[in-house]
Structures are given as structure tokens and as C-alpha cells.
């Protein structure tokens, strides 16, 4: 049961949106997903409240640094994928979640390319590696990419980040009405009305390709790393 965490120290990078799109897509494909909502704005908890029970999705709202590992342990048996949505911060909760992750997704807005928040998360990942030999797989996912951004411009952004050793997903998350409306309508992209949401088919295809790429990046088996030294190290790194 891999743990996929969305982190960017800067607010508004698209973490919550990307986390919900991934979680609902995986659930639609039949995987059991537990979302740990550690974003103080609680958008995903609110989405869950207005959606009613959703097949294959559980949402845990009260997530603190001390309880994070318990939530994962207690829900392991009934979860295929954990998705953690973090605050736009760099604190102990962020460091703990990252330390427990199999893959850290770092959303960066494709248009703005303001990568300072992403750089802070990359620095945290580097410290975990250098101080404790804990290597957490991670990738940047470009978000809110407008259809006007050319393939060439995207390739240039990817080349820039790859030159710094950062993997960038091939599938960006587009700027789509459906990705905003899902928080107001509840449910999943697949349960939305195509007559009322523009380009819903494109949003569904985007979500499918994104989830497919994320799944390809995950290890086949979850790693175990629950030693005391590990948690002392990640607390220090925070
Ligand atoms: N792909 C997208 N298409 C359209 N709108 C988007 C997309 N991604 C994000 N947004 C919008 O951008 C705003 C910020 O997105 P979101 O809440 O996902 O970011 P965040 O990184 O979780 O922010 P915070 O750090 O405050 O938790 C929201 O209004 C959201 O609806
Ligand atoms: Mg958020």
C-alpha cells in the first residue's frame, strides 16, 4: 500500500487539486484509496462531506504529526494507496509525511514556474538522503498548464529541471474547469455531467494519464522504515 504525498512549501501550487484527481481516478479504477487530509484548509474533507460516501475512498481529516503513522498502520489492511495532501509549508508534519512516503509529488505551476516552494521540498529530500541515507523517490508534476503552452515550451521546462537532476512527469495537469468544479459538485470526474462542464472528456483523459504515470513510478512493494532513529532524523531535518 504505497504512500503518495503531494508537497510544495508554497501555497496554491495545485497540491490539493492534484491529490484529489489522483485519488478519485485510482478509486474509479477499483483501487481502495485512503486520503489523509493534512491541508489546514480541508478542501478534500469538505469535498467528501458534500459527495457522500464514495466507493473505494476513505478520507481522514484529523491528521497530526503524531498520528500520521498510526493512520497509515491502522488503515493498511483496507487500503491499496494512501494519498497525503499537505499544507503549503515546511514543518514537522510535512517532513514526517515525506519520510513515510514511497513517492513525493511536487506540483509546480507550469505557467508561473515559481519553483521556490518546490526547491524547499527538494532540499528536505536531500537532507534526508545525506543525513540518514533515506532516499525518497520524487517527481515534479507541472500543474495548471494551459493548452496554449506549446510542447516546445514544456520540453524546455523539463530540460531545465532535468539538468538539476529533477524528474518531471510527462503528463502535466492542465488548467481545466472540471478540476475546479469537482470541489463544488462533489463526486468524481466520471460522475460529472458533460453537458454542464466544458471539456470534461479531456479532463478525464488527463486524470487517467496522470494516474497511469504515477502508478508506473511506484515500487512494487512498500518499504519498511519505522525505526526510532528514522523519526528523530526527519524531525531534525524539519
Ligand atoms: N489543474 C487546475 N485547473 C484549474 N484550476 C486549478 C488547477 N489546479 C489548481 N487550481 C486552482 O488553483 C487554486 C489553488 O489550487 P490548490 O488548492 O489545489 O493548491 P494547493 O497547493 O493545495 O494550495 P494550498 O497550499 O493553499 O493548500 C484553487 O483555486 C484551484 O481550484
Ligand atoms: Mg491545498
UniProtKB/TrEMBL annotation:
SUPFAM superfamilies: P-loop containing nucleoside triphosphate hydrolases
Domain of life: Bacteria
Alphabetical list of InterPro entries matching this protein: DNA_Partitioning_ATPase, P-loop_NTPase, VirC1
Gene3D superfamilies, per database record: P-loop containing nucleotide triphosphate hydrolases
A UniProt-annotated Pfam family: VirC1
Protein name from the UniProt record: AAA family ATPase
